[in-house]
Amino acid sequence: MDxxxxxxxxxxxxxxxxxxxxxxxxxxxxxxxxxxxxxxxxSTHLSLIQTTTPDPQLTGRLTTLVARARATVTGTRRATWRxxxxxxxxxxxxxxxxxxxxxxxxxxxxxxxSVVIGWWIGTHPEVQSALAAPDALRQMTRPGGxxxxxxxxxxxxxxxxxxxTNNAQATAMCLVLGAFxxxxxxxxxxxxxxxxxxxxxLMSSAGRLDTFLGLIxxxxxxxxxxxxxxxxxxxxxxWTVVDPGPRTRxxxxxxxxxxxxxxxxxxxLVLFVSGMIEGFVTPxxxxxxxxxxxxxTAELAFLVYVYVLGGRAxxxxxxxxxxxxxxxxxxxxxx
Length: 335
Prior knowledge:
Oligomer: single chain
Number of strands: 0
Shape: elongated
């Protein structure tokens, strides 16, 4: 395609579109129809230029024109309480449900790694001695030691807020850093599973594994599930960089990135619940069975939420993405 001839043939349409956009709301009905027609034509022109003879200056001008025209045609949309309700009842659970083939294997492998680390540490005294001096190990694992007092070392409200902030940051990092081929996500997972495995190993070697599990399970079930969902989503985002499928890499990453952003908001709410359990239930005087039962109830509630509401929404076509009017326009790749 001869770019000069193309510009000569269509620059009048672009100038006319720009003129109509400057007039804003003072358009007649016929002019509004003309603006829509010119917007569609200019979108096609931009696609042709991008795929045949890309010119930075001309592409920049037409991109701006198309964006302004699209905003004028579709209008400005404000978030409402209905959007929040839709996100909580359909968008977020559907996104978690759709990514289950990533986060469930991630969870199983991570737990297996943590158990193996715990077994290795618990059955090898030389490994324990390499971690800390015997007196320090006894201080951590004895009745009333550091592992037990950790959950009651601060006021419940401030402790819950601190836990929620730390966990939300970890899940956000998994979601954001997944774009780097998922490698940072694997490192974050390893650090979390190593920390859990050390606790399992040291407390089991002291004959107090039941106490440790009684402290971890009430909040840990929901908390680790949120971490695994974030990690699985981050790994899925990293794989999209490698294999975007039938779409362009840019379009695929945009869709997965928007879903990951929504996932970060939803998981922050899930972690808020687990933080409240960790701050108020774990250190409470409730019997161990009651604390564990509350943790299992919270975990089952989340899984039912994902598989019932999320599964239903996913089968109805919900993908956890923003509504179509809030997405960037997908331009055709051919005339």
